[in-house]
Design brief:
Length: about 230
Amino acid sequence: MARKKSTASRLRLSGALVLLALIVLGWGWWQLHHWRPGRADFPVQGIEVGAEDGAVDWKAAKAIGASFAYLDASASAFARDPVFVKNLEDARAARLQVGAVHKYDPCQPAEKQAANFVTVVPRDAALLPPAVDLDLLADECPVKVSDAAVTSELMTFLNQIETHTGKPTILKISSSFEKRYHLAAKIDRNLWLERTRFAPDYAGRPWMLWTANSMLDSAAADTALRWVVVGK
């Protein structure tokens, strides 16, 4: 009889522990998908949006606290985000400040990528400084590209799009790209870093923008959004 009671007690304890673990996991999941940095520390907050995010309710985005939006505009030498123009118009109609993002491809010539960007993004003084997304490495390029060439070509690209926009570019550098090329110390531009929940420090110097949650669930879209804050 005592053995049966002991077994029952262990089963109840195991069940309670499983329930507790599920509650903790559920709370963690909710936090991960709904967390945003506090306004007291980061008063200016916004989003990054592209075609992959689907339709965005821009009024709802503003209502939940977005004051600006960076829009995926172009990528590599030929790719263009099919909803950039619509997102630009709709975000502005909702009274958000807007900027454009180019996804850089180290395998493609800088001149062709710059031509792609300037074809998509208008010359408009009201736009925020452009951002270049640096995540793709040159390791898989059909023709070998040295690390020095990556930096040199990127500078050519930056100079050309900055001539078009009239503003210095923001470097949106992933941790893997920075680890490989150490661009934060080589190129004097403002930085945009990424790390969900915890402030990033992998660039070795202060950042201007931080993607604080890359999977934010909100009323502004059916899919998770990339939530971005401006540093102090």
